[in-house]
Write a structure and sequence with these properties.
By secondary structure, the chain is α+β, with helices and mostly antiparallel strands. About 25% of the residues lie in helices and about 40% in strands. The longest helix is centred in the first third of the chain and has 16 residues. The chain is globular and about 45 Å long.
């Protein structure tokens, strides 16, 4: 394989990145969690830090509290298993969600990784009430394989005063 072919395979256009993000969001909205998991690398870190009393984000998921933290895809797989087998009372009945993604920026594209930042807004309807969540996500895509995979996802929830459990399908 030539260097040009490798570059073509590992470089993603802005449109390709947006399509990847839209697909991930659609899979959550459609509750196709097993397919959604395929967007993640085996060693993918999934983290939603919390805000401190000083209005700063926590910086270490190992020593500080987080709203959600999975060190790798195994944690996400366990969560999906509980959602799929109705072993999650916090998710019963299932909420209906709609994810909106905007302001997608490629921060850096280097070798087999792409650093992306985007804003999101999710509406979630359950028990005849609609809740909304919004924030910014920082994402690392691994483009070394035949399809891009999420290697790291840091979700900054901007409206952290929430009245319910927050879950993977909310963000």
């Amino acid at each position: 394989m030539s260097a040009t072919q490798t570059l073509e395979r590992t470089t993603m256009s802005h449109q390709d990145i947006c399509q990847f993000l839209y697909r991930e969001a659609r899979l959550l909205d459609d509750r196709r969690f097993d397919e959604w998991l395929q967007c993640y690398a085996e060693n993918a870190e999934y983290w939603m830090p919390t805000w401190t009393d000083d209005d700063e984000l926590t910086t270490d998921p190992h020593s500080q509290i987080s709203l959600i933290y999975y060190a790798n895809r195994k944690g996400l797989e366990d969560r999906v298993y509980r959602l799929n087998t109705e072993r999650s009372t916090a998710s019963t009945p299932e909420p209906r969600t709609a994810h909106f993604i905007s302001n997608v920026e490629v921060l850096e594209q280097n070798g087999n990784t792409v650093e992306v930042r985007y804003n999101w807004h999710t509406l979630s309807h359950r028990y005849q009430k609609t809740a909304q969540f919004f924030g910014t996500t920082f994402l690392t895509l691994d483009t070394s394989g035949p399809v891009p995979l999420i290697a790291r996802k840091k979700i900054v929830l901007k409206d952290d005063y929430i009245h319910q459990v927050i879950d993977i399908y909310h963000v």
